[in-house]
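1st attempt posting a full record on here, be nice pls
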Amino acid sequence: MARAENRFVCQSCGAAHPKWAGKCDACGAWNSLVEESVRASGPPKGLGGGAKGRSISFVGLAGDTEATARRKSGIAELDRVCGGGMVPGSALLIGGDPGIGKSTLLLQAMAALAQGKNGAKLDCAYISGEESLDQVRLRALRLNVSGAPVQLASATSIRDIIATLDHAQGPQVVAIDSIQTMYIDSLDSAPGTVSQVRASAQELIRLAKSRGFTVILVGHVTKEGTIAGPRVLEHMVDTVLYFEGERGHQFRILRAVKNRFGPTDEIGVFEMTDAGLAEVPNPSALFLGDRNREVTGSAVFAGIEGTRPMLVEIQALVAPSTLGTPRRAVVGWDGNRLAMVLAVLEARCGVPIGANDIYLNVAGGLRISEPAADLAVAAALISALVREPVPPDTVVFGEIGLSGEIRPVSQTEARLKEAEKLGFVSALTPPRRLRAKEKAASTPGLQPREIAHLRNLVAMFDKAQGVTRKLGTGGGRA
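the predicted structure (as tokens):
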């Protein structure tokens, strides 16, 4: 009989240790080791002189496999992020901060699938391990989906859930809220530990692929914003979605970071209302709805999120610093790229901005990660420094190099078309190739102005040009 032994497993990375320590040697996390009991087993059969395994058969890459029909929920933003709908036999993982709206989105999606808003009605099951049946029913009543034919249950035992779902007439879509509350009774560790989360997810995914139903798992996140437990949970599933948003804003962003059946980095935009999450089909107009057109330190950035062009406002504030080390506060952008833009402005263009306190904000609660926002950030910083506004009907995008050159970015035509659709008449863009210039004829109502170096942007502001001339830098050496 196999004897049980204890080990200490890191709840951040999943590394196992023979004894407890305050710090995990693998990932460096503090106070993350939890004692778990495992059953020691001998060598696998067939490797130590036992029975041999059976041979596996190989096939060619070419075959007659047909494309699988996706299960569309009728929520266009969710279907967009999933790549056009949910694939039968796949596993989705949705993560997000507490209270961001994961359960709300999941219940709305299950109701839409069960009602057949965009196709045939599907048998859907919602299994909650965190809330009671009455609590889920109250949320359904608030969301006006209490009439949807969704099968509801409250359970945490994987053995009971597998026994319920493992038959031919089982549901076609199953939602588990959340995977951290599930447990397998054959493991001695507590629910939420690495062993329980990994084993529970493995059993559910195995059953989903064998029976052909779609399983949606809700995962808690750590204080760093990643899915709680080891990254192996993200490797096990087919699609990983993160639900993002600021508590002070009503917008919510559903972002795909992994998708085996569609594009990654795709986003869906929702607005939190009293009746639940509402889709935002045109997020650019919504993010720019409250923009003050005649304010300094503001620039409109034409960005790309996944396959969707999106216009957002970037705000900057430059104030004299009374501290030895000036402050740098950034919301919605990378602080390291802000430091780089400030260094290029001062070293290559002669703009004296480094001794000031800098505050940068992406309006609307959206987080931008692409380098094409460099030029828009530089325009907002110069505008805030010299108290001179950027032309209100102008969009800005481009990547800044360390020598001050403006580097081309992808999907320029899509950015310009989105800007023209919202009424913008000019754009500050990087130099484009001849073929891209020919394609620009499709936007006759918008005049792009190419900027080859950051000095050209500084020259557009009269006061900034006067400051650099007084310093005698001449824009630095490129």
